[in-house]
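Run log // design_07
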């Protein structure tokens, strides 16, 4: 288990329950509860503040935690900051959905983020003399790709877009990102990768394709659940 340097923060109050060095981070706190109940042994809840549920347990005997992050860079950034700086978390793995942006991508494919470009201003605070590229941890990336390949899971590895806007005013904006080879759009990874890099810890984003940008194909809850399971099992193997 990670060492705790503080008993509680403004957004996380573990009440003495440990948080593991490796944590899965879905956006939805009820997904966090589902992951813990489905995959973990010895489950303990470590956070209920704002209903942003967090749980610690073991997976195949190894300690692991899971916690919701909410949606968007501001939300994942404050939770990941507190997990890293106040609770000693070292491996942060976002698990979520994304909108596919390239022709060769199908619904339910798994996307592993090698990098996360962004339209957010979050990186500005680091005051770098140029444009910094938010990257995931190569150690986690390489392992996730290997695990996915062993499972026969179709994956796309590359650059995602962490966008601040879900309902954008500019109808051409995503097309311009597509031309730069962006695989898919989501809303959190750039903030997570920046926080992890600034603190010298490891982060990764793994997604299932829930929709294709420019297409109105609808997915069923059952299909989404199956795809979700494949992604979670890859992420849990990183613990
Ligand atoms: N935009 C942003 N985030 C998403 C999307 C999308 O289309 N699909 C799943 N997450």
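design_07 sequence
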């Amino acid at each position: 288990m990670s060492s705790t340097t503080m008993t509680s923060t403004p957004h996380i109050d573990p009440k003495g329950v440990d948080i593991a060095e490796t944590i899965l981070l879905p956006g939805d706190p009820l997904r966090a509860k589902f992951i813990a109940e489905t995959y973990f042994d010895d489950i303990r809840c470590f956070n209920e503040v704002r209903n942003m549920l967090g749980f610690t347990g073991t997976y195949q005997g190894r300690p692991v935690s899971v916690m919701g992050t909410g949606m968007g860079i501001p939300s994942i950034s404050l939770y990941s900051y507190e997990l890293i700086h106040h609770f000693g978390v070292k491996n942060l793995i976002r698990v979520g959905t994304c909108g596919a942006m390239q022709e060769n991508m199908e619904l339910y494919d798994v996307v592993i983020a090698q990098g996360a470009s962004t339209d957010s201003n979050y990186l500005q605070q680091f005051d770098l003399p140029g444009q910094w590229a938010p990257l995931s941890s190569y150690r986690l990336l390489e392992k996730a790709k290997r695990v996915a390949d062993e499972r026969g899971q179709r994956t796309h590895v590359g650059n995602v877009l962490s966008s601040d806007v879900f309902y954008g005013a500019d109808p051409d904006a995503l097309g311009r990102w597509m031309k730069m080879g962006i695989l898919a759009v989501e809303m959190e990874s750039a903030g997570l990768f920046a926080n992890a890099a600034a603190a010298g810890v490891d982060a990764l984003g793994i997604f299932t394709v829930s929709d294709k940008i420019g297409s109105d194909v609808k997915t069923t809850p059952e299909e989404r659940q199956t795809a979700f399971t494949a992604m979670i099992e890859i992420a849990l193997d990183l613990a």
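The chain has a mean pLDDT of 95.
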